[in-house]
Design brief:
The complex is a heterodimer of chains A (113) and B (113). Chain A is mainly β and 113 residues long. Chain A has no helices and 11 strands. The chains are: A mainly beta (113), B mainly beta (113).
Chain lengths: 113, 113
């Protein structure tokens, strides 16, 4: 596609509910990243994929967070047993390689009530 | 731990004014530095990318500089317009810490007509 597509755009979850956020990167982009952006803050790194391999998951805040990219294209970020502190915008970005510009999606705004 | 700081946190200027946004980073082993623009409810749009071997980059009315020795980058916006109103984020990339961006909290810019 022309850009990075994320769905849903908005998600309201009850505390304790599991959620799945989808990212469809630009076709052919090898690198894919997930970031979490709290209100009024800059994005914080969560995890990084190169093709289907998850090379860095050091930013995942707890074992309730899980990300996958099984075929090296679409990626899913799953949050189990959501908590209020998980409320944030989740941004996905892709790039052709390690040194190129990143293209960000519009994000998924998650609100846990 | 790498840290990126942006000042000021918010800035309001009249249309037509030239302005400078500041970004400082703690680790001089930066690979590159990128400036992004974020409009409300939207993802990030890449404005300028400066490699560590470069001193500055220009695009239209925007000019970004990088001084690794002092740990600073500036984004200069000439002849500001109301359409420039947005949040501006800088982000550093540190290859030795993995392929991720470390963001500042951003500067909220408002250009008044």
């Amino acid at each position: 596609g022309a850009g990075v597509s994320q769905s849903p755009r908005y998600k309201v979850a009850k505390r304790g509910q599991d959620v799945a956020l989808r990212c469809d990167p630009i076709s052919g982009h090898v690198s894919l990243f997930w970031y979490q952006q709290a209100l009024g803050q800059g994005p914080e790194f969560l995890t990084y994929f190169q093709n289907e391999a998850q090379l860095d998951k050091s930013g995942l805040p707890s074992d309730r967070f899980f990300a996958e990219r099984p075929e090296g294209s679409v990626s899913t970020l799953k949050i189990q047993r959501t908590q209020q502190e998980d409320s944030a915008v989740y941004l996905c970005a892709s790039s052709q390689g390690q040194v190129n510009d990143y293209t960000f999606g519009s994000g998924t705004r998650l609100t846990v009530v | 731990k790498q840290e990126v700081t942006q000042i000021p946190a918010a800035l309001s200027v009249p249309e037509g004014e030239n302005l400078v946004l500041n970004c400082s980073f703690t680790d001089s082993a930066i690979y590159n530095l990128q400036w992004f623009r974020q409009d409300p409810g939207k993802g990030l749009t890449s404005l300028l990318l400066i490699q560590s071997s470069q001193r500055e980059q220009t695009s239209g009315r925007l000019n970004a500089s990088l001084d690794k020795s002092s740990g600073r980058s500036t984004l200069y916006i000439a002849a500001s317009q109301p359409g420039d109103s947005a949040t501006y984020l800088c982000a550093g990339k540190y290859m030795e810490y993995g392929n991720k961006l470390v963001f500042g909290a951003g500067t909220i810019l408002r250009v008044k007509s």
